[in-house]
Amino acid sequence: MSGAKGPVIIITGTPGTGKTTHAQLLAEESPVPLKHINVGDLVKEKNLYEEYDEEWQSYTVDEDKLLDELEPLVSAGGIILDWHTCEIYPERWADLVVVLRCDHTELWERLENRNYPLKKIQENNDAEIMEVVLEEARSSYPAEIVVELRSEGTEDLEANVARIVQWIKSWTQDHQQESSNT
To answer: What is the rounded radius of gyration, in angstroms, for the C-alpha atoms of the chain?
Structure first.
């Protein structure tokens, strides 16, 4: 949904893969202004949920309310959506979908450090091993806009952000040419 201000980038992955860290650094280093939206935080702040599940320590998101809240922000462009899932977003929204991946042993440690309950750690670890988020992205968006990136340390983080910054530069040039041709 190429916005006037810049691309719409979705950064997704299993909890603990580094989405928020990537999104924050990308917003800082982007050659065009990008607004970072941590969708999980937005859900809590704007009460875009149906209930809180004590067992899983998570919110049951009201997807209609969430999409209604995001639509004007996404329409403006220049945004990074950071969330553990991506398939609820309309295909037309995304210019780039980045799926972060992490070795399951490293992921387990990260989730333990967050004090997740064992059941939640196991479920998220299984989801990572089974490539659940990657498959959701691949089945929801055109293959040419879905990119899988490793996220296991600082080197990966820096390389990934540099790669996405290059993509943004190309995207910006392409869209400047398109608008000058019309």
So the answer is: 16
C-alpha–C-alpha distance, residues 35 and 26, integer Å: 10
The SS3 call for residue 102 is: coil
CATH number of the domain within which 145 lies: 3.40.50.300
Specify the DSSP class assigned to residue 70.
H
Host domain of residue 16: 8-175
Q: Which residue has the tokens 């293959």?
A: 143
d(CA 156, CA 78): 24
Q: Is residue 3 part of a domain?
A: no
Pairing of strands 58-61, 79-82: unpaired
Residue-wise pLDDT tens digits, 5-56: 899 999 999 999 999 999 999 999 999 999 999 999 999 999 999 999 888 7
Residue given tokens 């719409």 in the structure block: 8
Tally the domains of the chain. Answer: 1
